[in-house]
Design goal:
Elements: H1 2-24, H2 28-55, H3 66-78, H4 81-104, H5 115-124, H6 130-136, H7 146-175, H8 179-225, H9 227-240, H10 245-256, H11 259-271, H12 282-297, H13 302-306, H14 312-335, H15 339-369
Helix pairs in contact: 1-2, 1-4, 2-5, 4-7, 5-6, 7-8, 7-12, 7-14, 7-15, 8-9, 8-11, 8-12, 9-10, 14-15
């Protein structure tokens, strides 16, 4: 029965997110498709609710979960990409569950289990839905989820800062009771870690941009020098995706009629590069990484800024535990796990790291004192 309730919650959440995505679409065709997918999920939810009422009279279908509602609210800051990625995984999981159930009952899969993903793929290929089609093509996993990556970076950056600096502070606290030494070490760890993260992010983004721009420039040169050859390559790529030869040739001819569109298509299809993703600034990424790491790293240091005396270490540890739990809870936006189990897991590993460094610091402090 719990399994059915969990399945029902997934259907309710999927229907809610599809409906919200439909409302946000400017393209009428895309909005219609998403709206109908939402209605189908709502229909599934009604059937599951009816089954559960047979087992538990008076059972009421749940509203959209806190996780789904939080995901939608976060689109204001991170866009809809990570929701699309999550819905894609949800659909794949539902399809696989349906197939496994049929196998368990001795029935053959009908081939209709992946219908929702096929619908999305079909819409994404329509020339009339160039804007939303590009958005929906993320269901196929062919493009990076920019919004999802930004949210992951925020969570993981704060986690790195908190765990590393908490471990550092606890290690020094094990070696000495001098609060000034602990405070200076914590602040130094915050700055060193944040600067290191910022530099690493800057190098990563800038290097990727330079590589992509070089590849795009080479593709532009090839397009200028050998347009017919590039057209044939584009046609072959379309054929490899399932188009017949005549249709692929017509589409390639149409695309090659505009050099800007042709370059974008060649870069996207041959190199797998989305030119819209090249607009990110390496400096913005660096500052964001610095800030996110610092947000996590300041948590175990805060009590040492405002308190004196013995309890300060325990207050630092308590604040760090709260921070770890909240980060673990935030991770459930991607994993779908229970907030409590994910939060508890994060706390366990964070405290384990802190215990190791505290123990090492204690041994070093004792040996130095002796």
């Amino acid at each position: 029965m719990q399994k059915l309730k969990a399945q029902l919650q997934e259907e309710v959440d999927a229907g809610f997110l599809y409906s919200k995505l439909a409302e946000a679409q400017e393209d009428h065709t895309t909005a219609q498709v998403l709206s109908k997918l939402g209605q189908i999920e709502e229909g599934h939810a009604k059937k599951l609710t009816a089954r559960l009422r047979e087992m538990e009279p008076g059972f009421v279908a749940p509203p959209p979960s806190l996780r789904a509602r939080m995901q939608w609210k976060l689109t204001r800051f991170f866009g809809t990409s990570f929701i699309i990625s999550n819905l894609s995984e949800m659909e794949k999981g539902m399809a696989q569950a349906a197939i496994n159930k049929k196998k368990g009952e001795g029935a053959a899969a009908s081939g209709m289990e992946h219908t929702h993903l096929r619908i999305i793929e079909a819409v994404a290929k329509q020339p009339s839905t160039t804007v939303s089609g590009g958005l929906l093509s993320r269901f196929e996993g062919r493009h990076k989820s920019v919004g999802g990556n930004a949210l992951r970076a925020a969570v993981l950056g704060a986690n790195d800062g908190l765990v590393s600096n908490m471990s550092l502070v606890m290690g020094v606290a094990g070696a000495t009771e001098a609060q000034s030494a602990i405070l200076i070490t914590g602040l130094a760890g915050l700055l060193a870690g944040a600067i290191s993260m910022a530099l690493g992010e800057w190098l990563s983004v800038q290097s990727s941009r330079e590589l992509y721009l070089r590849q795009i420039a080479m593709e532009a040169e090839e397009l200028e020098a050998s347009p017919e050859e590039e057209k044939r390559e584009l046609s072959l790529l379309y054929q490899a995706k399932g188009m017949d030869m005549a249709e692929a040739d017509r589409l390639a001819e149409k695309v090659m009629g505009n050099k800007e569109v042709a370059l974008d298509a060649l870069v996207r299809e041959e190199l797998g590069i989305d030119m819209e993703e090249l607009g990110g600034s390496a400096w913005e990424a660096a500052f964001a990484s610095f800030f996110l790491f610092a947000v996590g790293a300041i948590i175990p240091v805060l009590p040492y800024l405002f308190m004196d005396g013995g309890p300060v270490m325990y207050v630092s540890l308590a604040l760090s535990v709260v921070g770890l739990f909240l980060i673990g809870a935030a991770i459930t936006l991607f994993t779908g796990r229970s907030i409590w189990s994910s939060g508890a897991r994060q706390v366990f590993f964070g405290l384990a790291a802190a215990a190791v460094t505290y123990g090492i610091g204690r041994l070093i402090g004792v040996s130095m004192a002796g």
